[in-house]
Amino acid sequence: ERERPIAGAAPSPTACSTPSxxxxxxxxxxxxxxxQSVADVHGVPETPSMIxxxxxxxxxxxxxxxxxxxxxxxxxTPSEAYxxxxxxxxxxxxxxxxxxxxxxxxxxxxxxQYSVKPADVRPYYDYGPEKTWADNTEMVHLDDAxxxxxxxxxxxxxxxxxxxxxxxxxxxxxKSIPGLYTPxxxxxxxxxxxxxxxxxxxAIADTAYRxxxxxxxxxxxxxxxxxxxxxxxxxxxxxxxxxxxxxxxxDAAHGGRIQERxxxxxxxxxxxxxxxxxxxxxxxxxxxxxxxxxxxxxxxMCAGIxxxxxxxxxxxxxxxxxxxxxxFYEMLAGLDPDDLDQLQLENCHPYKLLYADGSxxxxxxxxxxxxxxxxxxxxxxxxxxxxxxxxxxxFWEVIAALIHLGEVEFVDLTDGQGEQPLxxxxxxxxAASPGAGGSPTNAPDTDVQPKxxxxxxxxxxxxxxxxxxxxxxxxxxxxLKFKEMRIPGRPVxxxxxxxxxxxxxxxxxxxxxxxxxxxxIVRKINESSAGRSDTAPSERFNSIGTLDIYGFERxxxxxFEQLCINLxxxxxxxxxxxxxxxxxxxxxxxxGLDIPKVKLPDNRPVVNSIExxxxxxxxxSLRARKGLVRENDADNKFCEHVHRDHIKDPRHNSGPVxxxxxxxxxxxxxxAMRLHDGFQIRHYAGDVSYTTKGWxxxxxxxxxxxxxxxxxxxxxxLTSRLSEPNNVNAASTNNSVxxxxxxxxxxxxxxxxxxxxxxxxxxxxxxxxxxxxxIQKYVLEQVxxxxxxxxxxxxxxxxxxxxxxxxxRQRFTEMLPPDFTRYRDREFMLAIMxxxxxxxxxxxxxxxxxxxxxxxxxxxxxxRDVGSMAxxxxxxxxxxxxxxxKVRSVVKxxxxxxxxxxxxxKQRRSNFLRRLRQCIFVFVRLHRWLRKARTSLxxxxxxxxxxxxxxxxxxxxxxxxxxxGTSRLxxxxxxxxxxxxxxYEEPEYPSFLKRDLNMHSPIEDNVLKMWxxxxxxxxxxxxxxxxxxxxxxxxxLCQARAPLGLDDVRRLDVAESSQALPxxxxxxxxxxxxxxxxMCQHRMDKQMFASCDENNDITVWRWHGTDASDPSKIAxxxxxxxxxxGPEEQVLGMCFLSQNVVPRRITDQQGTVLVILKTNxxxxxxxxxxxxxxxxGSHYTELIKTVPIHTAQAVAAxxxxxxxxxxxxxxxxxxxxxIGGSHILKFYTVDTRQEGDKSIISLExxxxxxxxxxxxxxxxxxxxxxxxPPTPSIGMLDWxxxxxxxxxxLGWKFNSxxxxxxxLDESMSGKFRSxxxxxxxxxxxxxxxxxxxxxxxYRHVQNSGxxxxxxxNKVAMEExxxxxxxxxxxxxxxxxxxxxxxxxxxxxxxxxxSAQVARADEASMPQAALSGQNVACHASRLVPNILLLCDxxxxxxxxxxxxxxGRESRAGGA
Length: 1454
Fold this sequence. Notes:
Blueprint lengths: L18 H5 L24 H4 L22 E6 L3 E11 L3 E6 L9 E5 L5 E2 L20 H13 L4 E4 L2 E5 L11 H7 L11 H14 L5 E7 L6 H15 L4 H22 E2 L7 E2 L2 E8 L5 E9 L17 H9 L2 H6 L24 H17 L5 H17 L4 E3 L39 E3 L4 H11 L3 H9 E4 L7 E4 L2 H31 L7 H4 L1 E7 L11 H31 L13 H22 L8 H13 L10 E2 L5 H6 L8 E6 L2 E6 L3 H4 L6 H9 L3 H5 L15 H17 L1 E9 L12 H10 L2 H10 L3 E4 H7 L13 H11 L7 E3 L3 E4 L3 H10 L6 H67 L30 E3 L4 E6 L21 H12 L2 E6 L4 E6 L13 E7 L7 E3 L13 E6 L6 E6 L4 E6 L12 E7 L8 E7 L6 H4 L4 E8 L6 E10 L2 E11 L1 H10 L3 E8 L5 E6 L2 E12 L2 E11 H4 L8 E7 L8 E9 L4 E8 L5 E10 L11 E6 ...
């Protein structure tokens, strides 16, 4: 039975509670969604009457806010059986999950409690038991669950149509709904905008009709009707075309003829192109695009039809439970007995072409037989409009011939006795005569024996088919049994066909003839409907097209036709995404609206893959047609090629083409498919498995050349028109079905792109074709597959109605006083919205359009209809507001006018300075290159006269007597102190939220303070030979009688045990702790250290801390070790480089970079800087850079002194390295550069201070400190402070230019003038500080969101303050003022009279001041106002409180 039409009457909207009224019942639960909805998915309409639809909703809208849930709320939750189920929240586990309870009244056992993710939950709002929404955008909550619920409720109320913005959703009722498609209904919808009446296809058709008349550019319109098979697309298309024919302004005579042709074309196309499938009794097995052409006044002038991909394979093969095309059954049931006798047919005979699956033909006078007769009568009446009675009979003759050809069977003669065919009749022998007519006249004389013979019982069927087609029966049989191979200049060669080849040839003839017959009837319809003119209708008129194309298909067995069908759906889905959804987002962007963008799916990879597969198919089809591949292997070769290019190719590993899924159960049953029997494609609607058997044949649209010639020679007009003479001798031409289909599909999409598109989405309520049965899960999948879900997301934030400001102004001019006409369109509409107090959350104004939420235009229209006028008070306020805006605009323009000359002058000055800097940079570089060139050409420049002295420099390792006239290079740096957190005594950060809180101050400060008091730091002292560790506890700062803050002094074993050993713990006799000669700390990771021992073994390790209760715990963890230096080398210094200047290839592998300064055993006048990348268990040398020390050697030799190295440090940004010692102060830049595809580290010299500045040649530079830039300055990079043995402080400013090059700013560099240190007293230490009070870091920690420990691990020094300490114990504080750095005396460091000293023999140490030769000092990061001191003379640790109130009482040590 045919699919019943979508019928029924949608009752007028009933009055019911609005969302705002219902909100009063549960006000706590209605936060609603962020914005109500959406957008016009059809592009940008130009007329408000087309787009703005009045709403059933109340004018008073509920404000939208962020959704939230509470216990007891009703929500929608996902369900495998129902799609979504209504549940109640029982409990909420934070943001991780909800515990919900569902109750199924129909089946109580299906209820119960379970857990769901909050992201899967949809809000529910109770509108009442009967309330529905004609437009989904009017609902309080807009999502897939609520849309599904609204559609379902309307379906059971026989309201089968629903809007989603301007997209019409239709659900097939599978029953007739009275009054839904009557002439009165057509008159009711004529000239009414969508939304004024209940949703209906007539409203969409009327919108398209009026838009093609009103749009300025007369743009064509298109109605795209989509959905799966059985959803009602064909019936919906019929109703829209019926409406357009009725409402067009056409004169009675001409209009009647055109309308008659359009209406009569539908039953013809249904009979020839529709068939019964498992899901739909009237399924369109082809795609069609009906075009109706209208003139400038809207009169229907002509029409046309374009068809796409008729499923011609259905003529010879149908899946179980399906039928052939309707016309076969209608013809057999409806023709008179005389006509059937003339066609030699019987209406109750089980013809193989029609009943291949074993089904029985219709019984005489059965109800179904009567319906088929009625359909055939309707078909003949419709065809009479386009063809005469005699031409109709020719159509029936061709169809009858195809039925007879379907009865032909073949016998295999290769075994000598014949083989039984698929039926039971006895075959003829191989010696049987081919026929009474003798040998074919057009076949060559040959003795080639056939491999097959037409079955004896099929001879009559072949004769009858040949007679009906008026072709030679013997020639037709010859073409079936032999394949002619024609070579120019040679006789025709006959190649016998096998039984399978003969059957395929026969089926190919049947399919192609029926397809050409279908194209012929379409051509007849178009010729009759196009009108009489030499020009095409598309050049003269505007058109409204209706696209009715097959829906997405996923059958039990999917073949070539399903691939083409699904490709069309993929292309249309991509068109919907690109041309509608993306265009919607573009409109918001063009209008300057801040609407969140929605991530849209991308169908292009699937489309490109399918098109690539069709190219492969065409290639193999051409090879098969030329005979270059065995016919039985053609399909397998094609499938193997697809697997090779799209599945096995690494470039397509994650592509949409997948191998077939092998079924173990099918394999056990023996009917499993092999890997190369097909493939799987991941479509937007789900995965589909395709079987490629027979694709080569299905892709060929060329008839057998011999049969093509027979059709050309026939005398029957219709049969002759079915031939294509150009293909008679085109044996090697590839008439590809796929390429023709792709061409048609591209033309269709190009046509749609030129149109204003309207969408109707059809849904199938169930898979049983039963009325009154709505399967929610089944419909939900269709909603997702058709792109409605993406549409909903855009609607969630957008505005469904938008109108041009100029057109709105014309409509609402009378609603404001006449003096408002002087305002521009935008100001006028703004005045309208303000005057009538429209909720500002429901509208917004763009640059050219007014955007409205659903229902708001109806409010304005109602006000205009009743003649509403704004009150005088409101008009006065608006005038004042506009006047103020005008004044502000004038002030702004005046400000711009006065600012512009200043800005131009500033830009000119800036450009001048920039060009000047570039010139200076080029000038300096040229002079440097000139100096290098002169050195290369003429050798090293002569030594100045005052430095001329004969000397010989020797480098010695270890100790030894220095010879006269030589200098010995030794590393004689001062003891150095480091500070790191004690991770063993770091409390758990969140635990303080539960105890000991002081509620009189903010919780955050209390938590940080308690964490600070309970955490400890370790002070690590490297004295040149060993590493000592002490524990510092800040509790002493907050308790009056606290124990000593420094205790637990230990000795660190860097080489063997990784432990911090107590001082009284004597190691094993075989346990030797090597001497640690060099030690450094990472600037950005304060827990990372590097050390070098007397054996030149370099170790990188991470500090953990010490545990007073368990001395056996390891104090650090080894990261890497480097044992690459020989005994003749000596390490003079080390420093880390952090991620700022380290190539990414190193940091990505968790590596770190260490720069080592060492001696050069081959030349004592040079040092070496070796850059090492160190990983867990491995290390690599990145760079070795030479450092000349000629001048220092010369000065040291002249003074008969050792050449001492005191420091090797990196600057704050680590872009500058500082090397300092006696007569040595050098600066090197650190940078990364690209060599090929590899990023490497480079070191370049910046300045040799001793060589450039004669006044410091004799100085010994003892300490250095690098600070962040203390003053904001363009290009300033680092500020470095150097102290020397004469008590002087030198400052060096380094800048970075636009190209990243580092230069020394000599104008801002030099000696510190305000220096209160005693002249001639050596500078011992420069101390950077991290704050001035114990709570200095609280605000930074709270703002950064990091834990205290992570913050302290990366905290930087203060940039405008530091301390300096001299050998005499004088401590100065330096602060940056407007006039520069200024010093003030901090104090003289206190003595250790009361300090307790921890030593191995527990004896008291002599009391002395904390000053002397080997003092080391470092600021605490945990308590920024504390300085941690180390005095080698008294062998003690101490601390010093820098606060004025703490200087007397907060000094102590251990």
